[in-house]
Amino acid sequence: MINQILLAVDGSENAYRAAQYAVNLLKSIPKAKCTILTVLTFTEDEARFLGESATDYHLSAGQKVDALLKRIKQLFHWAGLPVEIVALQGDVAGNIVNYARQSNSDLIVVGTRGRGGFKGMLLGSVSRKVIQQAHCPVLVVK
């Protein structure tokens, strides 16, 4: 039974398609809840190291998250579905897996950028790491 869905997004078109899939899934499971998670890779510690104040970091991070999630939040709003928004910072795959475990998510939905070959091996794949480390099923949307 799916009660809690974690939708991890990064602002890409594939993340938007993953959001569309999650919306359709939630329509078929009326009691399920969804949390949208985005992870900022530029952390407050890095900003502080570069001389940025915590206030400035949080202001710019908030603006970035708002811009990144605008279309996805509209998608949920148009579908009449409530959603919780969470923004974390640091390691993307690790944060997705840890948050899913802490929130007792039954399903993680992610998009994949589709980087293959050498570039995919060099950079690593967030979706691949999530699949390997998650405690629950992971749905990857291309």
Query: Using DSSP, what is the number of strands?
Result: 5
Structural class comes to alpha/beta
Which H/E pattern describes the elements?
A: EHEHHEHEHHE
Strand content: 15-25%
- Biggest β-sheet, characterized? 5 strands, parallel
Lateral strand order in the biggest sheet: 3-2-1-4-5
Mean pLDDT: 90
Distance between the termini: 24 Å
Low-pLDDT windows of residues = 116-123
Count of DSSP H/I helices: 6
Subunit arrangement of the protein: single chain
Helix content: 40-55%
Rg, Å, rounded: 15 Å
Mass-distribution shape: globular
Task: Describe what this molecule looks like in 3D.
This protein has 142 residues and is α/β, with parallel strands linked by helices. It has helices at residues 13-28, 44-49, 54-78, 92-102, 117-123, 126-133; strands at 4-8, 33-40, 84-89, 107-111, 138-141. It has a 5-stranded parallel sheet with strand order 3-2-1-4-5, sandwiched between helices. Strand 1, helix 1 and strand 2 (33-40) form a beta-alpha-beta unit.
List strands and helices in order, with pairings.
Elements: E1 4-8, H1 13-28, E2 33-40, H2 44-49, H3 54-78, E3 84-89, H4 92-102, E4 107-111, H5 117-123, H6 126-133, E5 138-141
Parallel strand pairs: 1-2, 1-4, 2-3, 4-5
Give the structure's gist in a few sentences:
Helices cover 51% and strands 20% of the residues.
Task: List its traits.
51% helix, 6 helices, alpha/beta, globular
